[in-house]
């Protein structure tokens, strides 16, 4: 362990300085100038940049998801949504990860649901670059599309989506100032700010989902505990049978909706 690195990280306020130092040292192991590169990475981390951006990846559901500057870092609580999706989508043929960012959901689902055609969509071209890189190992079975919500999807998917997973921004605008400084400074504002009550994008997704879901297809969207009942109503107004799932340990809340009808 590089004690100087640990000391610098600790002085910068990194609570898990030893663990972070180990990751940073590993990140430069194959570099042609490891000492120079390590100093650069440590400087970035001490300046407050998220560790995941600095090392170039985030761990999510046991996988390494490529991320970098300007990219939303997947949160551990979102693993709950993905596990629910895997359980509901074991027979899914078409899966969509909307507001995908670097596509952590799509990457895990493509790994776990080997029979499924997987699509990821986002409006942010920079984040989609990481999404495409993360999905590249799956070849033509996994594609990323640029555009605003459902407008990004190929028209042929209308009415065929068995599993629609969404991690849209849900922090109310006035609460953005309460987020950790590294999120506010280094992650895209559009990935955090959900509008006046945090549900602006969620409502648009709920409204549009029935036109894209297959019969008995499922929509899963992450939200906060305080917002869940409102989203339950929104799902119901859209014609979906809806319920709330929670994991207290992860402090995760997911609203799930099912399209009526008989699966083909």
Overview of the structural elements:
The protein has 264 residues and is α/β, with parallel strands linked by helices. The protein has helices at 3-11, 17-27, 34-46, 51-55, 79-88, 104-112, 125-135, 181-186, 200-208, 228-237; strands at 57-60, 63-66, 94-98, 117-122, 142-146, 161-166, 213-223, 241-247, 252-258. The strands form 2 sheets. A 7-stranded mixed sheet has the order 5-4-3-6-7-9-8, with helices on both faces. Helix 2 packs antiparallel against helix 3 (34-46) and helix 5 runs parallel beside helix 6 (104-112). It is globular. The termini are far apart.
Quick structural gist:
This protein is an alpha/beta fold and 264 residues long. It has ten helices and nine strands.
> Main β-sheet: number of strands, strand sense, barrel status?
7 strands, mixed
Question: How do the strands of the widest beta sheet line up side by side?
Answer: 5-4-3-6-7-9-8
Give, in order, the helices and strands.
Answer: HHHHEEHEHEHEEHHEHEE
SS-based structural class?
alpha/beta
The helical percent reads 25-40%
Kindly state the mean pLDDT as a whole number?
Answer: 95
> What's the number of helices?
10
Number of strands: 9
Shape label: globular
Rg of Cα set: 19 Å
Low-confidence stretches: none
- Amount of beta strand: 15-25%
- Ends distance: 57 Å
């Amino acid at each position: 362990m590089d004690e100087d690195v640990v000391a610098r990280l600790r002085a910068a306020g990194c609570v898990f300085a030893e663990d972070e130092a180990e990751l940073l040292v590993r990140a430069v192991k194959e570099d042609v100038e490891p000492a120079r590169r390590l100093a650069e990475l440590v400087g970035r981390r001490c300046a407050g940049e998220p560790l995941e951006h600095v090392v170039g990846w985030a761990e999510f559901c046991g996988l390494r998801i490529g991320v970098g500057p300007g990219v939303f870092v997947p949160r551990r609580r979102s693993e709950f949504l993905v596990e629910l999706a895997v359980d509901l989508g074991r027979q899914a043929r078409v899966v969509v990860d909307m507001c995908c960012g670097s596509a952590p959901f799509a990457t895990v689902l493509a790994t776990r649901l080997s029979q499924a055609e997987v699509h990821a969509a986002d409006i942010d071209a920079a984040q989609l670059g990481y999404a495409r890189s993360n999905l590249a190992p799956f070849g033509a079975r996994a594609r990323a599309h640029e555009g605003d919500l459902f407008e990004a999807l190929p028209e042929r998917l209308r009415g065929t989506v068995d599993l629609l997973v969404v991690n849209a921004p849900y922090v109310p605008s006035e609460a953005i100032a309460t987020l950790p400084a590294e999120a506010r400074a280094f992650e895209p504002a559009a990935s955090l700010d959900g509008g006046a009550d945090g549900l602006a994008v969620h409502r648009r997704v709920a409204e549009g989902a029935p036109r894209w879901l297959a019969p008995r297809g499922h929509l899963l969207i992450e939200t906060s505990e305080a917002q869940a009942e409102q989203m339950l109503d929104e799902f119901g107004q859209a014609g979906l049978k809806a319920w709330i799932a929670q994991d207290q340990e992860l402090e995760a809340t997911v609203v799930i909706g099912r399209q009526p009808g008989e699966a083909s």
